[in-house]
Amino acid sequence: MNATNYNKSIKWLLVLSWSLFLGMGSLMAQSHSYSTDESMIALNGYSSVSYIENGKAQLGKKEYKATYDGLTYYFMNKQQLEKFKANPVKYIPQYGGWCAFAVSLGGKFHPEPNSFRVIDGKLYLFTINVEGDFVKVWEKEGKEKHIAQANKNWQNMAKFQTFAP
User: Taking the model in full, what pTM does it have?
Assistant: First the structure.
C-alpha cells in the first residue's frame, strides 16, 4: 500500500470510529471540555510534570495532588507538585487532554496515557486503537500541519459536548 492510500485508509478508519462514538454519544456525553470521567482526575492520574520534564508517562500519587480549573492532577513527588502550583498552565495538556490527531480532524477521542509527544514544552496526547497508532500518522503527515489545524478546530469546537451528535 502506498503512502497516499495508507493515509486515506487511516482517515477513513478514523471516520468509522467517529461514527461508532457518535452512536455512543448519550453514554459518553460530558458537561465539560476535558478528557476525563466523573472523577475529574486529569490524565487518568498520570503526572503532567513527568510527561513534560521527564518525557515519561508516570502515575502520580494521591498524596501529591493539586486542583486546577476543576480537575485534580496527581504528581510523583512534592517537587513536581510545587512546579505545577507555580505555573499550572505550563503543565496542562493541549486540547483538554483529548487526542491531538482527532482534534485536528474535528473530533474528541480519549487518549492512551502512554501515547504522547512533548513539542515546544507542550503536551499532546494520542489515541491508540485497532485502527492504528494516531501519533504515527500525525507525525508522518506533518505534526506542524496537524497542530495548526487542531489549534483552529479547538477554538471552534463545541467544548461543552463530547461525542454528542
Answer: 0.76
